[in-house]
Every structure is written in C-alpha cells, then in structure tokens.
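Illustration 12: PhoX family phosphatase.
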Amino acid sequence: GHGRGDRVSTDGFRPVAPNTDDAVTVPPGYTSAVVAAWGDAVLPGAPRFDVHRQTPESAAQQFGYNNDYVGVLPLGRSSALLVCNHEYTNEEIMFPAGAYSADEQRRIALASHGMSVLRIEKGRRGGWSASRDRRTYNRRITGETPFAVDGPAAGSARLRTSADPSGRTILGTLNNCAGGTTPWGTVLSGEENVNQYFGTAGEIPADRAEAFERYGISAEGERGWHLTWDRFDVAKEPNEPNRFGWIVEIDPYDRDAAPVKHTMLGRFKHEGANVQLAHDGRAVVYMGDDERGDYLYRFVSAERMRRGNSRWARRHNQQLLTRGTLSVARLSGDGTADGEWDGTGEWVPLTSDRESFVPGWSVVDVLVDTRLAADTVAPTRMDRPEDVEPNPVNGRVYAALTNNSNRGTAYPTDEANPLASSKVRPELGAPLEDATGNRNGYVLELEPGRDRTSSRFTWRLFLVCGDPEAPETYFGGFPKDQVSPISCPDNVAFDSVGNLWVSTDGNALGSHDGIFRVPVAGRSRGKVEQFLTVPIGAEACGPLITDGDQHVWLAVQHPGEGGTFAAPTSLWPHTDRFPRPAVVVTWKR
Ligand code: FEO
Ligand code: CA
Ligand code: CA
Ligand code: CA
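Figure caption equivalent — predicted structure in token form:
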C-alpha cells in the first residue's frame, strides 16, 4: 500500500551494490515495471510491433527508440501524460542483418526518433501502465513532424531552405536528449548531437566551414542520411543544419498544437532546459551545451508567467521563451587554500531579442551560431554540461558535468574544472587505475542571487564523482566510507523535500550506470546512495520522482549497445530475443 512511510524522499533503503547484471536492480522491498517499450502502440490503430516487419509508417505510430527524457504531467487523480524523448537509433540492434535496405533502415530510424506522449493510469497495486484511451492525448512526434519556429531567428535568411522558403516550418526534431517540464505545464526538449545527421557527397560550402567545424558537421557524416534525403546533404541545403540544435516546446495537453522551436534560447548541442521562476514571475531557463569544453547558458524572459490554466494564460506562457536575454557563464575560483572548489560567477549577456551584445554580431547570428558568438566573450569551458536544473526546495541550481578525458591537456584546469587526472576501474573488482582528465564528472551547485535574474552568482563543486577510495573524490563533505561510488552524472531531478537524484551515463568504475539519491541539506548532505542499476550496455535516463515521492521513473536507454541483433549483449527487458529501450517505474512494495 501507499502508507505514509512509502516515500523515497525520506525512506532509508539499502543501496544497490555496483554490479553488471542484465537487469534493473532496485533496493530490497522495492519493485519495478516497464510502462512503455520501443514498439508499443502509441496511436490508436498502431500495428502490433514486429521486429522483422518494421516500416516508417508503423514506427511513426509506435513508441520510438532510445527513450531519454521522462516527463509525467498530471491528468486528474490517477491518470497522467508520459512524455518521452527518443534521442537516437541503434540500427545494429534494431534491424536483423539483411532484412532491410540501408534506405529502409534510415526511413524507419527517422520515424523512431522524436518524442511520444502517452496517457497512463495508476494501478491499484502501485505502478503505472499505458491507458486504453489512446485517442485523447496520445501523440508521436517524429523526424518529419512540422514544427513552428519562433523568436528572432524565425523566418530569417539563415533558416530558409528550398523546401521552406519562409524559414518558419521545420520538419522534425532530432537527438532529443534531456528536457524539462515547465511551471506552465508544457515540456521542453533539447536537440543535442544533431551534427550526426548531416553529410554530403559534395563539398562543404566555404562560407560554412568555420561554423560546421565548431558544431561537428562534416562531409562524411555518421549516418548517411544525406543519401536518402537531400535536406540532410549540406552541399544541397546548407541551411538545414541551422534548423536543428534548438530547444523545442510541446504542449502535451493539446495534440493538435504545433510543437515549436524556440530560437531565442540559442543553437548548440542542447542537453535540456529547466525553468526557475524569478520572484516577479519571469522565467529563468538553465541550459547546458554537452561537448567537452563547452558552456553553461541562461535565458531570462522579458515577460512574466501568468498563473492559472486558462487558454489565455497558456497561450501567453507559451510565448515566454520568445523574448528576453540569453547569457553564458563565466566562473572564477577564489583559490583552493580554503579547501573548497568554489567561487563566484557571472552571466555574460550575448543577446536580447532586440539587441546583440556581441560586437559585430546580429541578434540572428548570435542565436544561430551561439557557440561562435559565445567564444568571443571568454566563458568558462566546462567538462560537458548535461542537465542544469533548479532545486525547487532550496532554489540552488545543480549542473551535471559528465566528464572530460581531455581536461588538463587540451583544456587547462581551473578551480571549477580542477581534475587533470582521476581514478578509474577497468572492471568491477579490479584495483583503481590512474587516468588522464576528469573521468567521473562533477555536480556543480550554483547559488543564484536573491534576485534570480541577477547576473551574479556563487558556485561550488558539490560532488567530485568517482570511487570514494579515490583521493580526489568529494561528496559534499559527507564521510566517504558511507557513500556509493558514482561516475558520469548526466540527468538530475529533485524529490519533494529537495533531495537530488542523479542518473549516470558511462560508468568508468566497472559497474553499470544507475540512479542515485543525494540529500543536499542537513547532516546527510552529500550522502550519495545508489537506488538502482540498469542492464548491460544501457544508460540510465530520467530520473523523475512523482506523486508524493511514491514513484521513481527511469528511461533505460540503449540496452545492449555494443552488440548486434544477431549477437545481442543484453536481452533486457527479457520479452524478446533482442533488447528494447523502455521507460520503467519503481516503487516500494
Ligand atoms: Fe544525450 Fe548529453 O547526453
Ligand atoms: Ca576555493
Ligand atoms: Ca543526457
Ligand atoms: Ca550523456
């Protein structure tokens, strides 16, 4: 039952030990269940999933591949909307060898990207499952769904293509990694490593060389999509890459509303976006650019959020991200003599919707080539900024900095990025070994000013991740013999009392990735405890804590990555002869 004690926010649980099992392993007394898996019906009338008979049309009606962000938006007492990103595809495990042509694979893959909205119902015995009502809200957004574009770059010459001379309608969203649910009841989602979809058999246009280089776009590409679609050929459509790499917003309560790409939030490898309201109701949006040596960003809206759920308020709030100011973070250390990696910081403005603050750059150019514009103002080069999320209880902002093997070599150390070497474990049970760079990542704690729109903040490293036996690790000052090893933080979330929850991607300590709970206040501040581990080859995404802290959500992404369809390394969730990415909910029995 769901008695008062069944709260992951306050309950003690026996931490899950590091392991390499092909399972989602939760603490004793807890259980887990799959809510939605790759291929499940999302739209009414979706064909039954058959791995040997996939088509682009069926994929566009089914739950997509590689679920990443998980949002759960309320819909009455025992119903909700599950919103997920489908970041990318693993063709080598999705498709039996020889069963599909390269062209068919690409078309199915494009339809397996994007997002899903799925109505779910709370079960009587705990857990959640897909609703039988697929008509009212269920939705698939794919690599071909029309998006509206707003903000200053909408309609600009830099967004126009031969298929869209208006520069205002973009087909599809790609590589949607993390995201955030807004205080006004919509979902934001970050288009991340979109460079991989572009290539050309021709030449990169000379006037694009610098920007393409900075964004990782090459003639070779990684997926050959330019061989199937002209729009992904950068010699034929050099502006198509400018139409990806944005924050998108969808209204899950209105399946007919066009999703939107917000140009005001800049274009880079967006991990996600999370909103904190300033005391006057303006939206403060935090974002990370997930690349070694890239930056933390912040947007402050010009207008205030309107309370309430009227159509008028919802329409107003969905315009909040069109006008305001985009800034990039510069962090200064105060020296290490105080025994802490900490200091002060500044949000350096890049552009507002009306005025660019980068000399010689237009507003549109700052928003389209945000990385290049930011490079001119000397921000702090971070170790792959992933989720950046405000804690609703203490108002501080937590940024996952996942790792950077080149820190100390290509990227000099500084107080916010202090490790030029760190300890890793080649496999579970093996002794720790020295490695160059920051291999296990950090969690950075930012303290905005009392006025959350202030350009000044203070910061400290809250977690220096790794094995607690490694001398460089730090867990908010908590005794190191009582914490779980943690490596490569990626996504963060908070429960109702403000505990930080962290999911990881790329464990460098020989164990599988997982989800961890960490109090940020009181005597247990820094007490990292592992709540679950994920199957072979998988990354843990989400996490999300819902309904009075009774449920912890998880997206199991790319189980079996590294294997093939013929030789799978994982069979999770053990329903088929191949692995299936899936969204899981866990709860106390
Ligand atoms: Fe898709 Fe930054 O992880
Ligand atoms: Ca210091
Ligand atoms: Ca991520
Ligand atoms: Ca990641």
